[in-house]
Amino acid sequence: MLALLIALIFCGTMIYAAISDLLFMKISNIACLFLAASFIILALLYGLSLKDIGLHIIAGSVVLIICFGLFLINAMGGGDAKLISATALWTGFSMVLVQYLLISAITGGILTLCILLLRRLVNRNKIEHIAFLYRLTDPAKGIPYGIALAIAGLWIYPNLVLAG
């Protein structure tokens, strides 16, 4: 039962973040906070030691500091920074974190190329009535990187300590 709850919370939040970023170009603060708080509660229920939980919290905090720096120089969106940090809380300092960041970078690169291509090929005047596509094809807008972060999160999910 706990395994199902962990899967629903982690995977469900990742899917929600991806859909939200695609449709509105925004990742909810509440989703990121929910993911972070859920880790702590579920880790206790799972029986993870306080030392291990503390190390996971440090990992999430270090990633948050780095991502906040990237946000300050406009190299990353705020929602993306929070989602990466909340996910790092789940991975801790492990190879799973490295896998997550690598898969995020690869899928993010592919996503970026696809959206840039879409922006070149689509006549925006013909899609004005489809708000999310109109936003997505706006060259002044960023890339909904939460999609790549969610794909990477789902990819690494089986390797998480709590998923085992």
Summarize the structure.
This protein is mostly helical. It has helices spanning 2-24, 29-46, 50-72, 78-91, 95-121, 131-136, 146-156.
How much is the radius of gyration in Å?
17 Å
Q: How many alpha or pi helices? A: 7
Q: What is the CA-CA span between the terminal residues?
A: 13 Å
Give the overall shape, derived from the CA principal axes. Answer: elongated
Domain module tally:
1
What structural category characterises the helix and strand content? Answer: mainly alpha
Average predicted confidence as pLDDT:
97
Helical coverage, percent range: over 70%
Give the beta-strand count: 0
Which percent range describes the beta-strand content? under 5%
Biggest beta-sheet profile: none
Please provide the ordered H/E string of secondary-structure elements. HHHHHHH
Low-confidence stretches: none
Structural notes for this entry:
The protein has 164 residues and is mostly helical. It is 74% helix and 0% strand. It contains seven helices and no strands. The protein has helices at residues 2-24, 29-46, 50-72, 78-91, 95-121, 131-136, 146-156. The longest helix has 27 residues, at 95-121. The protein is elongated, with a radius of gyration of 17 Å. The chain starts with a helix and ends in an 8-residue tail after the last helix. The mean pLDDT is 97.
